Amino acid sequence: MIEISLDSFHHYLDDSASKVPPFKVHKVKLPLLWDNPVGFSDAIPFNNDILFSGSVVVKDPANPRHASYYGLLSPGASQPEWCEPVKDSKGEIADIKIEGLAIVESKDGTLVVDGVTDPDGGVSEYIQVKIEK
Fold first, then answer.
1. Residue whose C-alpha is closest to residue 51's, from 67, 78, 70, 75
2. For residues 28 and 78, is the Cβ–Cβ distance under 8 A?
């Protein structure tokens, strides 16, 4: 993850002659699933933390699979506070890849999040996930 001051970034965007502003790089360790690393798909601010989605894509021709995670990361942290796979109504890891997210509601320890999937060549879908802490 890269940390950069918003003012410096805006100045850089507004002035094509300006140098790249100073920034910090924070390495973040996400979990493995099926011996494949989870990669970030989207991230948005939530309270003083970052709510993110992450995806795993297994391109094994005999057993192609997708999965998505939601997690919470404190700025500057090296690993998420929590990170859980998205599950279907049967409690199994859902075969989806979430690429975009938006918080709909946060109340009484429950977070409702809208997501958009990317099926790699199929039709994208809108989903809603309830996260209970």
1. 70
2. yes
| C-alpha span between 101 and 114 (Å, rounded) | 6
The domain segmentation of the chain, as residue ranges, is 2-132
CB 55 within 8 A of CB 39: yes
Contact criterion met (CB below 8 Å) for 113 and 103: yes
Q: Do β-strands 49-58 and 65-73 pair in parallel, antiparallel, or remain unpaired?
A: antiparallel
18 has pLDDT over 80: no
Q: Which of 28, 42, 131, 128 is nearest to 85 (CA)?
A: 131
Tell me: the pLDDT tens digits for 73-94?
888 788 888 888 888 889 898 8
Q: Quickly count: other Cβ atoms within 10 Å of residue 34's Cβ.
A: 11
CA atoms within 13 A on the CB side of 93: 14
* Strand partners of residue 55: 39, 68
